[in-house]
Design a protein that fits this description.
Length: 613
């Protein structure tokens, strides 16, 4: 009689990672995978393992998991267990290892932090260890082969190692916006699509810079007009350095012209013209100085003044006479000077308080206007850049459009062939590529709109998936797409979280066949509630939850043959009766026999991603 495995479900398993040898450098060569007929199920041979596989997965203090260690098989692995037992936690742990968001609320209550670690075996037989540490407080850490790494590096590596198909992707398939990515993945167009996205980003950046420049130009237009007004106002008066002081002096002279003429004339007369003028009186002065010098030699040196003073007085007299002749009494000129000085002083008051400030302001205005002219030159350059970036984007997008149309013609029949293997014999698929979208609909994905149309029944027109696909049909379409994409994907572990949603009976059986066939070429990990699917697994893990010492704990165990029968019986009937166990044993035997006979008939003999075009 088969035994149930639940009794041992909460035991802690030894951590196989403790004995794992670390390798510093990971080798993940890019390879082309060829799918070949393998009826003997020789997948189990160690020399035919997948290019990359997860050997061990270790989880500590994550959600309700205190300690869990799993040694995965290189083929088709399934996880089953009661709802809420923690199966999705395992998938979530893998998500963390490929760059998923790690938040403190993931840490098990009372623990200092969570740790998730996986050992990957690469194609050359070496191992690489990826570890993620999430503390209850503070920042987490990422290690790749014991070297600290960034989240971006982990995401880049994760995309090469694991492809996780979560439950939400079923609903994402209902959104036509996701279909273009599926077509690109199928056709090996991701690199071209990335180039289009980068070209779009460059174009949008150029447009944003140009628009910012234009907005700045619009805002500067009023400023420039104001600056031009100020410049014209200053240039209209055109003040010269020091002109204000010159004008003030001239104004004083003109305002006091009569007085100045009188003073100059009177002074000249007193100095030179009158009988008692200074020059006439000097003769007496010189005679008396000569007498003083004769009597006292101390005055000899002062007597020399008679040689120097007369020329000075002559010069002074000449200057007074010339000045008096030059004095201008002109009310008109005085008015002109006062008007000019008023203009200069008004500018000074307006532009800084002095004529020097006015001239400095004029220089600054001129420089600012020149900068605006330079802005126009820069704006013209940005316009050229935006035009060139747009042309580059359209060139790349149109080239991608052509390739998408070609791949769409290939994807439709390939998808129909896969659906026939998944119990949808009448499934008809149209892959519609709408090219040449209007400019307002251009984006990072290019200028195309891609949508999958499905007809699941004979005589019915193909319609959008969101309108015609049931939950089970949606799951099978997604599995078919994943199968086609995986066929051309070198070295990834494929993870499916409840890919069998909405599927039962014969359809679930066919899904199991396809997953088992995928497991012949890739490592596959699947969470399922379908016994038909679980029976095809090469490794079956039971996940259980129990309460111990007041704490909820999740445990995982690789099931023995008897344990698998007991778990399949639970999945089939919810009981462990003899009849249920007998049915489960028969199911397991029949699926094992079928899997050793089956190949992967719908997958082409050789389908390297780069050969589709």
């Amino acid at each position: 009689m088969a035994r149930r495995w639940e009794g041992a479900s909460c035991r802690r398993l030894p951590c196989p990672l403790d004995a794992v040898k670390h390798y510093v450098n990971m080798a993940l060569p890019s390879t082309t995978v060829a799918i070949r007929h393998d009826p003997a199920g020789a997948r189990a041979r160690s020399d035919e393992r997948p290019p990359v596989m997860i050997r061990f997965l270790s989880i500590r203090d994550l959600a309700i998991v205190d300690a869990m260690d799993i040694e995965l098989d290189h083929g088709f692995n399934v996880l089953t267990g009661e709802t809420g037992a923690g199966k999705s936690i395992i998938i979530g742990a893998l998500g963390l290892l490929v760059g998923g968001r790690g938040a403190a609320d993931l840490v098990r209550t009372g623990a200092a932090g969570a740790r998730v670690q996986a050992t990957f075996e690469t194609e050359d037989g070496e191992e690489s260890i990826v570890r993620r540490e999430i503390p209850a407080q503070g920042r987490g850490r990422i290690f790749i082969d014991d070297a600290l790494a960034t989240a971006a590096a982990l995401r880049t590596l994760g995309r090469r190692l694991v492809d996780i198909h979560g439950q939400h992707e079923h609903q994402a398939l209902l959104d036509p916006r996701s279909h273009v990515g599926l077509l690109d993945a199928y056709g090996g167009l991701e690199a071209a699509a990335s180039e289009v996205a980068a070209a779009h980003d460059r174009w949008r950046r150029a447009e944003m810079q140009l628009e910012a420049e234009r907005e700045g130009a619009r805002e500067a237009a009023a400023r420039i007009e104001f600056l031009q007004f100020q410049l014209e106002e200053i240039d209209r008066i055109s003040p010269q350095p020091g002109e204000d002081e010159l004008l003030r002096n001239e104004r004083r002279r003109l305002a006091n012209a009569d007085r100045l003429l009188h003073l100059a004339s009177q002074t000249y007369a007193a100095l030179y013209e009158r009988d008692d003028s200074v020059v006439s009186s000097l003769g007496v002065v010189w005679r008396q100085l000569d007498e003083l010098a004769a009597l006292d030699s101390a005055f000899v040196e002062h007597a020399a003044a008679r040689e120097t003073v007369p020329p000075l007085l002559d010069d002074l007299a000449h200057a007074l006479r010339s000045y008096a002749a030059a004095v201008e009494v002109s009310p008109d000129r005085l008015g002109e000077v006062e008007t000019r000085l008023a203009d200069v002083e008004r500018l000074a008051r307006k532009y800084g308080g002095s004529l020097d400030a006015v001239l400095e302001r004029r220089t600054a205005i001129d420089a600012e206007i020149r900068r605006c002219t330079d802005d126009e030159t820069r704006r013209a350059a940005l316009e050229s850049e935006a035009v060139a970036a747009r042309a580059a984007y359209l060139g790349a997008a149109r080239a991608l459009s052509t390739r998408r149309v070609t791949q769409a013609r290939s994807l439709a029949p390939a998808l129909e062939a896969e659906l026939r293997q998944l119990a949808m014999p009448n499934g008809r698929v149209d892959v519609v590529v709408e090219t040449g979208l209007p400019a307002e609909r251009w984006g990072q994905r290019g200028t195309d709109r891609v949508e999958l149309f499905l007809s699941a029944n004979p005589g019915e027109d193909a319609r959008p998936l969101a309108r015609v696909a049931s939950g089970g049909e949606l799951s099978r379409v997604m599995l078919a797409l994943k199968t086609l994409v995986a066929t051309d994907t070198a070295g990834k572990t494929l993870v499916f979280d409840e890919i069998d949603a909405g599927i039962g009976g014969r359809a679930a059986d066919r899904v199991g066949e396809r997953l088992r066939a995928l497991g012949d070429r890739y490592q596959v990990l699947c969470v399922t509630h379908a016994p038909q699917l679980a029976a095809y697994a090469t490794a079956h893990f039971g996940v259980s939850k129990c309460v111990s010492e007041g704490r909820t704990r999740t445990a995982v165990e690789r099931l023995s043959p008897d344990g698998r029968i007991a778990e399949l019986a639970r999945l089939m009937t919810g009981s462990g009766s003899s009849a249920a166990l007998a049915s489960a044993s028969e199911l397991l035997d029949s699926r094992h026999a079928a899997s050793t006979r089956a190949a992967l008939p719908a997958v082409r003999e050789e389908t390297p991603r780069t050969s589709r075009e």
